[in-house]
Design brief:
There is one protein chain. With about 950 residues, this protein is mainly beta. It folds into 5 domains: about 180 residues, Jelly Rolls, CATH 2.60.120.260; about 240 residues, Glycosidases (TIM Barrel); about 90 residues; about 90 residues, no CATH class; about 160 residues, no CATH class. The protein is built from 9 helices and 64 strands. Monomer.
Length: about 950
């Protein structure tokens, strides 16, 4: 089937195949997964100075042409790089007598168009906007026509460069969105603007051209094609703008939770005969900004759980696809987001369509990174944006420029163009009752931010970089936003790492240093740790904290943090699991069930009661999964039933066939039991070497305090029954209170340390050992995983037994042509029970019998300029911690991001040993 006929069928109105519709013929492909070869000539940079071919749509850098350019770069090629395009096409003879437009959905940046050697119209300036020319008089119908387009990467209009090209993002050139022809009757509908309110009222402005029509008739339909209500009509108005209105009693409303869509067909008629029909997808909903109050959707105050998103893919730049748009929206919904900001320009239409149908509230944005378009150019581009995007129900707010890129002359353009009168904000400015300041600290103080009078609506916060930001600090911010009436939520910066494939450098992935790795997900949308933190923190089901004790009756107090959905529309299931022991590859033994959810209205608390079996205490962990009305997992939570002491008691064997023995020399104590030999330095008090019948287990040089003076004075040894006990002695200035090793006849070894953290506030508390990283192949451990944590990013993990291969991922930094591997191997892990290191030699198993201990695995690589995103790590490389550090963002230190970002605090005047931190570890050196 010819491409234009397929497009025609897709655009046919619902009520009739006989009415004349807009016929569409694509000259290009539709996205990066569907392209058409055009002739191409690049004037500068790679592969310039010769005619060849290029896929359209595309950015030419990703096809091996021109020069890669990040927004801050200044070079000699800048301003000289152009792309010359040629494409031959035919139009059907049947189109003769119709008006034919050529439509460009986006080209970077100045675009001159010719048809058959004649100019189609003025050069278009501005990259991200749909523009069109009436080329009817330039075409040869039924014959071959020649399209020529000259695209300048940088604009001759300096204000366009200021707004679009001098930004903190990759710059590209080329026809990066589809190009198509549209054929309409000479009398036709040129634009339809619809305002469908939550009360069922519908107003529409229908713009017409030509004189061969006397009436405009509207009809609503469901997406399945069923008529809804009757026709509504109005005579064609003089001047070409006809106003229509109707009312639909009790419509199903559009929200981010219930994205119900309708279609409205507008038909021009002459003497009762259809002349031209256009149909649009719409949603009934009302958006209001109530000053000194909040943002309302359908009369309900909403909190935006949003993220900023670039239109971007590593191998195709700004050229995306419908498939990628749907995947992006699905990922955002999976993180329990309800909103997205189009930063810093209008997106592809298929992305907005995905937001419409899947349910995300959208902030659509006029470009202007730190500087604005001039008024004539900005007016034209703003009008183009509104004409293309105005009927998407997902768009609830317009943004006029970013961080100083505001042209105030464009605000009246948005007011005039938008029939729905959506709120207009300026990103990072107090404007029209909103405070959208970026990268707010947790508490700004009296008279401003949440202590002021405006609706607080940061259009960027928690600037991600590498592994910092996003999830780190979010729980503090969100709990504050949730409880503060003047908060409307906010938007994280940003969705995905901007790593581009460098065709000029062997196809490596390049983030331009620290400029691009700001995402929650990696360049190819690999899920980083913050992905799951956001998913839990922004869950619309909130579990009040509780401990699982023998008195647990299966009841949880939960809060509904939806805006429109009752929790009885969600599904809750539970699972009890018995977790495997170290070295086992067996799956957990489980029991499962479903919970009946009572009616819990939005913002209300209620009780979720699980009917657990009588033997529930025989299990190790309880999981509860919540699923939304569409079947999407909201989150899975876990609660420990068996505590570390119980698990250690099961696994540690103390008895053996003969007693442990100790010998000494001037510098060492040597202890032997069941084939295991340990040596301790009498000069330092540290473990020197471990050996068994198979050889050396290279755990050594520990335990060393993470912070604070040791003031070691000596070791003593004694035989205690069949056990050997090694005690350390410390001076009065030591942070150690005691350190004791016990070697059992079985060969198992216990270490117990008591110490005080270094100061009143501190970054690190714990002990460390050395283990050669080069010998580590992987790890199996029981604890919270599989992702690492920071002090201010504790959520997003589950208790289980996890297995992970070694990797050296530096979060956000691609390794050559490869994306980073997630989850990262190195870092801090919470709720530690036990580990087995898988090595090139013998395995090593270590258990802990206390709660609230973190495992530290080696030291991650951090970015070249880590800013506030390189937290402290102790010496050594295998640690067991009571206190770990928080992580900051690109622009903020962690202590400014809320209570969880502050240093650990522990203070005791008395130095009473009962207040000392205690850590007990068990070591299995058998090599099994």
């Amino acid at each position: 089937m010819p491409k234009y006929l397929l497009a025609l069928l897709l655009f046919l109105p619902l009520q009739s195949l006989h009415a004349q519709t807009t016929e569409t013929q694509f000259l290009s492909g539709t996205g990066n997964d569907n392209t058409v070869k055009w002739q191409f000539y690049c004037t500068a940079g790679q592969n310039s100075g010769k005619w060849t071919t290029i896929p359209v749509p595309s950015n030419w850098e990703l096809q091996g042409f021109g020069k890669y350019d990040y927004g801050f770069a200044k070079d000699s090629v800048r301003g000289k790089e152009k792309g010359l395009y040629k494409f031959k096409f035919k139009v059907p003879k049947s189109w003769q007598g119709k008006t034919v437009n050529i439509v460009f959905d986006g080209a970077m940046t100045d675009t001159e168009v010719k048809i058959n050697g004649q100019s189609a119209g003025p050069i278009h300036q501005g990259s991200y906007y749909r523009f069109k020319y009436d080329i009817t008089k330039l075409l040869q119908f039924g014959k071959t026509n020649l399209l020529e387009a000259t695209v300048s990467k940088h604009s001759a209009n300096q204000s366009v460069n200021n707004a679009e090209r001098d930004g903190d993002f990759w710059l590209f050139g080329g026809i990066f969105r589809p190009v198509f022809l549209e054929a309409v009757p000479t009398t036709h509908i040129s634009r339809v603007a619809v305002d469908a309110k939550a009360d069922g009222s519908l107003k529409a402005d229908v713009y017409t051209a030509g004189t061969a029509a006397d009436e405009v008739v509207g009809q609503l339909y469901t997406l399945a094609g069923q008529k809804v209500g009757g026709e509504f009509r109005s005579p064609v108005a003089a001047g070409g703008t006809t106003h229509l209105q109707t009312t639909l009693p009790s419509p199903k409303l559009w929200t981010s939770e219930t994205p119900t869509l309708y279609r409205v067909a507008m038909t021009l008629r002459q003497g009762g005969k259809a002349v031209h029909t256009v149909d649009k997808r719409i949603g009934f909903r009302t958006v209001e900004l109530r000053e000194r109050d909040g943002l309302y959707l359908n009369g309900t105050k909403v909190k935006f759980k949003g993220v900023c998103r670039h239109s971007f893919w590593p191998s195709s730049g700004r050229t995306t696809s419908k498939k990628l748009s749907i995947a992006d929206v699905q990922m955002m919904k999976d993180m329990n987001m309800n909103a997205v900001r189009m930063s810093h320009y209008p997106p592809d239409d298929h992305f907005l369509a995905a937001c419409d149908s899947l349910g995300l509230m959208v902030l659509d944005e006029v470009a202007g990174w730190h500087q604005a378009y001039d008024t004539p150019t900005g007016t034209k581009l703003t009008e183009e944006m509104v004409r293309k995007d105005e009927n998407h129900p997902s768009i609830v707010v317009w943004v006029n420029g970013n961080e100083g890129g505001h042209n105030f002359d464009l605000d009246p353009v948005l007011d005039r163009m938008d029939l729905q009168k959506r709120p207009v904000v300026h990103a990072w400015q107090v404007f029209r009752g909103t405070d959208t300041q970026h990268y707010i600290n947790y508490d700004y103080g009296n008279g401003t931010h949440l202590h002021g009078h405006n609706v607080v609506f940061p259009t960027e916060f928690l600037h991600g970089l590498y592994d910092g930001g996003h999830g780190a600090g979010l729980e503090d911010y969100w709990e504050q936003m949730w409880r503060e009436p003047l908060s409307a939520g906010g938007f994280l910066w940003d969705f995905a790492d901007a790593a581009v494939v460098r065709t000029d450098k062997g196809n490596i992935l390049d983030t331009d240093g620290d400029h691009g790795p700001d995402g929650i997900v990696g360049p190819y949308h690999e899920k980083e740790g913050s992905y799951y933190t956001i998913k839990e923190v922004w869950s619309p089901v909130f579990f009040e904290r509780r401990e699982i004790t023998p008195a647990f009756d299966g009841a949880f107090r939960i809060q509904n943090r939806y805006h429109f959905t009752n929790l009885n529309q969600c599904r809750f299931t539970w699972k009890l699991a018995q977790l495997p022991a170290p070295g086992s590859k067996a799956a957990p033994v489980t029991k499962t069930g479903t919970a009946t959810v009572p009616s819990i209205a939005p913002t209300e608390f209620g009780t979720l009661k699980l009917a657990l079996p009588t033997d529930w205490q025989q299990h190790d962990v309880l999981y509860v999964t919540a699923t939304d009305p569409t079947g999407r997992e909201i989150y899975t939570w876990s609660w420990p039933i068996a505590r570390p002491a119980q698990v250690a008691q099961r696994l540690v064997t103390m008895q053996g066939t003969s007693a442990a023995k100790v010998s000494e020399s001037d510098s060492l104590y040597t202890v032997a039991a069941n084939g295991v030999t340990l040596t301790f330095s009498r000069k330092t008090g540290l473990l020197r070497q471990v050996r068994n019948a198979k050889g050396i287990i290279p755990l050594s040089h520990g335990p060393v305090l993470a912070e604070g003076e040791t003031a070691f004075e000596g070791l003593s040894q004694r035989q205690e029954g069949q056990n050997v006990v090694i005690d350390a002695k410390f001076g009065k200035d030591s942070r150690y209170q005691s350190l004791q090793w016990t070697v059992y006849p079985s060969g198992w070894v216990r270490m117990t340390a008591k110490y005080f953290p270094k100061d009143y506030d501190f970054q690190l508390a714990g002990i460390s050992f050395n283990y050669p990283e080069k010998e580590v192949k992987g790890i199996q451990w029981r604890g919270d995983g599989p992702y690492r944590v920071w002090k201010d990013r504790m959520k997003g993990t589950n208790l289980g037994v996890w297995t992970k291969d070694y990797n050296n991922t530096s979060t956000g930094e691609p390794d050559g042509t490869k994306s980073p591997v997630y989850p990262e191997f190195k870092g801090y892990y919470s709720n530690f029970y036990w580990l087995t290191l898988q090595t090139t030699g013998q395995p090593l198993t270590i258990l802990c019998d206390q709660e609230d201990v973190y495992l530290r695995l080696f030291t991650p690589r951090f970015g070249a300029k880590p800013y506030n995103t390189a937290p402290a790590f102790p010496s050594g490389n295998l640690s067991f911690m009571h206190g770990i550090p928080p992580i900051g963002t690109k622009s903020q230190k962690p202590e400014n991001m809320g209570p969880m970002g502050r240093a650990n605090m522990y203070y005791d005047y008395s130095k009473d040993p009962s207040y000392a931190k205690e850590l007990t570890l068990y070591f299995d050196f058998s090599g099994k």
